[in-house]
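look at this stuff:

>
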Amino acid sequence: MAELLIKNGLVLTFAPDALTGQMLEGGAVAISGGSIVEIGATAELEAKYPNAQAIDATGRLVMPGFIVTHSHMPYVLGHNMPVDFSQLHDFWDMLQKMGWEWLEDITTQEGVYAATRYAATKMLKNGVTTVCEFVEGPNALPGILDASAKAILETGIRAQVGYEVTERVPGGHILKNISVANAEQGLEENIAFFKKYPKGGGRLEGRLGLHTAFTNSRPTMERARQVANEYGVGIQVHIAEIPRAFVVEKHGMSAPQILEETGVLGPDVIAAHCIDLTDEDVAILARNKVNIAHTPMTNSFGGNGVARIPYMMQNGLNITIGHDDFFTLDIAEYLRYAFLLHKAHNANAMLLPIFQVLDMALGNAARAMGLQNQVGSLEPGKKADIIIIKPDSPSPVAPCSALSYFDMTFQGRQVETVLVDGRVVIENGRSTQVDEEDIAKQCQEQAKILWRKTGVNI
C-alpha cells in the first residue's frame, strides 16, 4: 500500500547518478511509512494505489532533496554585520576576529537555537533536505548541541550534528594559549549528544566535530578518533583552509600528514575546504578515502584560493558541496558557483559539467555521510526526502534539458514542495512546521544581541 502519491511530474531519479539516472515524463512516486515504495508511470501507480493521497506535480520536476555536507547554521547571526575592515588585513584576521572574536566566542545557546531554526527552514525552502552541521561556540557549553537539536527537530530537516573539538582558548592567541581541557569539554558535549541521538536512530544523529589539526594536539586528535569509533559516528573536520605553512610550523608536517598519523582519516571523514594541498597531501586523503566538502563561495570570500577539485576528482576523491551558511543559503548559488569557478580558474570550459556538480549535492554527499542507502536518489526503499520544483524558465524543461536547467536557470525559490521522511515540511513554498515570521523575528533579535557585543549600535 501507499499513503501518498506524487503524480504527473517529470521524475528525476538520480539513480545511480545524475548522468545516467532515469527520467520519467508523467511519472509518479508512491510513498508509505516515510519511504519510497515504487516509481513508475502515473496511470499505473494511480491504478495500483487508488486510495493514496495525491500531490499533483504537473509541469514540475520531482527529485531527491539536496544534501549539504558542511554548514555552520549559527553563522547566519553574522550576516550583514557591520564590520570595521580597517582591522582586517588578511584571512587570519578574518578568522580570528570575524569568525571567532565577533561571532563564535559570543554565541549563546539562545542564538544557536534561533539561528538554526532560521537557517534550516531557509535551506528546506530552497530544496536542501539533509545537512551536516558543525556547531561552534566555546562559551555556550555545555548544552549547545541540545539547542541545535531542538531547532532541527522543529523545522523538519534531516541532519548529522557535532560540536567542534578544539584546544583553542577564546580570546587568546592560538599560538600562545591552548587548553586540552577545552578539547575534552568539547568531546564530552559530542558524547552526550551521541547517546541521545545514536547513529541510525532517526532523522537526527551525531557526527563528531574536530575543528582542525592546527587547533589541536596529537593526543586530542587520537582521542577524537577513539570516540568516533566507540560511538560508530563519522568525523567532520576543517583541513587546509589556512595556509599549509601554519600547520607545518606547529606539527612539522601538513594537516593531512598529522591527521593520518593520528588515525583520524578514513572513509567516515568529511573534510571541509581542502585548499592549500600538495600532490602528496591529496594522495594521503585519497588513500584514506576521505570525503571532501567543497566550499567554493566561502573559500573565495576569505581570499583563500581555489581548491584543486578537478585534480582531486582525478585522484578518486569523493567531492561534495558545503557552504558554511554564508550568503543567501540558496543551494542554487553554491551549485552554480562550483559549476563556473573551476572553468574560469583553469581556463577550461570542459571542467565540472553540471551532472558532476549535481552528484556532489546528491549521491556523493549521501555516501560521504554514510546515508547512501537512505537518501541522495529516488529509489524504492529509500527515504522519501523529495523536492518538487516549479521551473521558471524561458525554455522547456524536459528530459533533454533537465540537467542544463540546474546550471542555467534553477533558483531555490522555484522549489514548491519539500518532503522529509514522507512528510510535507514545505508546501507552496512555506514551512508547515514553524511560523516563518516568528523565526525571522527571533533570529533578528538574537543577531542584534550578538552585534551589540561587538560594539554595533543597533
Q: What stands out?
A: The chain is about 35% helix and 20% strand. The first strand starts at residue 4 and ends at 12. The mean pLDDT is 95.
